[in-house]
Amino acid sequence: MSAPHETAGRTAADHTTADRAAAGRKPSARPATDFPTVDFGRRLLRLDTRRLGLLVPVRTLVVCAVLVVVILVVGVASMTIGAYDLGLGAVLRAVVDPASDPDARQVVVEWRLPRVLFAVLCGAALALSGGIFQSLTRNPLGSPDIIGFGVGAQFGVTLVMIVLGHNTYGYKAAGAIVGGLVTALLVYALATKGTLSSFRLIIVGIGVSAGLGSLTSWILVSVSVEQAMMAATWGAGSLASLGFDQLVPAAVVLGVTVLVAVPLHRTLPVLEMGDDAATALGISPGRTRFAAMIVGVMLVALVTAAAGPISFIALAAPQICQRLTRSSTPMATTSVMLTGAALVVVSDATAQLLSVQVGVVTVSVGGLYLAWLLARQYRNRT
């Protein structure tokens, strides 16, 4: 029998564990995280293994499955579009049968397939970046398109292409990363006054974005027509002429960045509850925000270096995903990345049909979405 002072010191949880052990039952496993769980009123599917209990929303599984189907169907269909006329059967044979028509296989596998894979990669990266910044600012307008980090990456690439005269993928990637990070540090420093305010972050970001946009325009009007046209063509955002040489390093960088962003999937939603609650749960708001900004800028820079600025995907994808899955946060890593990938794949297929660049399609559709979002925000406040 336990001593009286030992018995009094035991908590209710200790009694429960002891009772279950005495009854021959294993105590329930500790949750994967110490953060509080919230029931959003959704149907949940429990996947039980020996050491893992995972709750997966059924609606999210269905949405992700539908998005994967959309990506596959539209991606395969887009590979039939082009000057070299190919039917759906010829495209499928070229992908699955190495001994098929050599010309068709070269067109499909070496030219068109990398474009589709790049669309998936760019959409996933932009959507995840948008989810990070919208969760960070707790505002649907808090995307890198609005805050100005995308413009900073574009300004860095413009300097590398026009001023330094380098047009290779490596130099453009370095320019995008440096430009985006410097812009992020500048916005962070200007927006921080004791504590970082989400409203100040957005306002300062809009101002910095306007200034960098003016500098980019000044550079373009100060150079030759050929250089300006080259930079303007890249600045419209295009997935054409991208191959596996650019895809492989971009995919590696994306994979590493996503792994770094995995902890943010848990910490950023807690940070949305407020700094006091986050601090009480052992999270440093300042370090979390700074790390989130660095990861988000890296994702934007990755896309900007490869395909140029593809606007409004980072703004729209998290909100669309949040409404489809009925999630309480835009920071849902898997579903938001699939949403962005589907948006860019569909936009690129539309761009090929219209013989325009994918950035033109996303700007046109995204502008309408932004107008609707602003009108909805204004209506909710009146």
Describe this structure in words.
72% of the residues lie in helices and 4% in strands. The chain is mostly helical and 382 residues long. The strands form two sheets. A two-stranded antiparallel ribbon has the order 1-2. Strands 3-4 form a two-stranded antiparallel sheet. The N and C termini lie far apart (67 Å). The model is unreliable at 1-18, 20-42 and 45-54 (pLDDT under 50).
What are its keywords?
disordered N terminus, 382 residues, 17 helices, two-stranded antiparallel ribbon, globular, 4 strands, two-stranded antiparallel sheet, mainly alpha
Secondary structure layout:
Elements: H1 4-9, H2 12-22, E1 44-48, E2 53-57, H3 58-78, H4 88-96, H5 102-137, H6 144-147, H7 149-163, H8 169-191, E3 192-193, E4 195-196, H9 198-221, H10 225-235, H11 244-261, H12 264-271, H13 275-280, H14 285-307, H15 313-325, H16 333-354, H17 358-381
Antiparallel strand pairs: 1-2, 3-4
